[in-house]
Write a structure and sequence with these properties.
6-stranded antiparallel β-sheet; alpha+beta; 115 residues
């Protein structure tokens, strides 16, 4: 699969018995299949520690204005932006309306788990 933010290859990593697709050494984003984010949030393992351990290339600049395509479906349709915590103080995450997967940019998992 390809990272929807920086177009690098995603790497499979396992945390809390969940295999996630991660932009390891790229922008640091994480792909969650339909129920994986909820399962990670309900697990006893600390997902934020996992997210903090993902190496990020500081030279990569992600253009937030570009539409994001689902790495699972690889369809022509773009993912929908959903605001978590309100538009003013929250974060915007990307959700595929076709498969139900969620893309979190670097730092968004920690923010969600802190709320």
């Amino acid at each position: 699969m390809t990272c929807p933010a920086c177009q690098r290859a995603l790497v499979e990593l396992t945390v809390a018995d969940i295999t996630l697709d991660v932009c390891h050494g790229g922008c640091g984003g994480i792909w969650f299949d339909a129920d994986e984010l909820e399962r990670l949030n309900q697990s006893e393992e600390e997902g934020d520690e996992f997210a903090l351990s993902i190496p990020v290339d500081p030279t990569i600049e992600v253009d937030e204005s570009l539409p994001r395509r689902c790495p699972r479906c690889e369809s022509d349709s773009t993912m929908k932006q959903v605001f978590v915590g309100g538009e003013e103080e929250g974060v915007s995450i990307d959700v595929c309306e076709n498969c139900g997967g969620t893309w979190l940019d670097h730092g968004e998992l920690e923010w969600i788990q802190e709320q």
